[in-house]
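PROTEIN DATA CARD
Card holder: Alpha/beta hydrolase
Chain length: 298
Origin: Paenibacillus sp. SYP-B3998
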Amino acid sequence: MKHKTLSVLTAATIALSVLIPTASANEIISFASVSNAPAVSNSFSGKIDIGGYSLNVNIKGEIQEDRPTVIFESGYGDDSSVWATIAQQISQYTRTVTYDRAGVGLSDSDPNGGFTSKDAAERLHKLVAALKVDGPLVLVGHSLAGLHMREYQYLYPDDVKGIVFVDVSHEHMEDTLFSEFPVEVRKEIVSEDFRQMNFIEGNIDDALISYSQIDIATQADSLRNVPITVLSGGNHHYPASFPVAPELLEQRWGLLQTDLASMSDESLHVVDPQNGHRLHEQNPQLIIDNVISLLERL
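Structure generated from the sequence above:
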């Protein structure tokens, strides 16, 4: 077993010198049949029809024969712009894809609705097919996207070569973080987060369904042989007014992240003790270094 846990911030800074190709502005590709769609060029910015509605996509970098395409998944309600700096750097090593999920950013809403992890995974699979992405993928995602990526790997295991989790959600986080409260109180605490985001990507009921979907994937031990990196914040600055002591929440969150890392025999767990939940904004170099490191491990 090659499971490692680190409590260091960064590895040596990696020099990046290759210029990034310029993306074409506002390109739109629309088609009725994914199978008949033209392949999208290596440099692209625009909307892709995946069957009656379109997702906003940005592609950078060149396809590398020995390196997977890296696809970035944003946290709840975030558009793809949160990955711009990181994707730009990674695109000097391999092709990168950032996109807005349905109903977020510049993407259309799915007329059929649905905000579970299975819904998100199936839409991404349609997008990958529409883009004619050949070869395996490395998925990189933040927060709730952690569940979406795990569902994608469970549904399409041959597609996924590795995963980088950035302080991601866990299917048992409410039960663990707020264990001293009744179930209904736990749900209400979490529901407030969805309320503050205007339910842009669903509500607590969607999350609960997603947890059930991920439980099935966990029971199948789907991550066991997948190289993964778990990046965790160690200082989330939980407010003192929160119903659980901040230091206790920090400890419990760490246990959830450790549990995720234990799901793979090819895992690396890195804790940033200075930063919290939005590691991709607070410490982007940590994500850049570890994505490159995972690419080199594959």
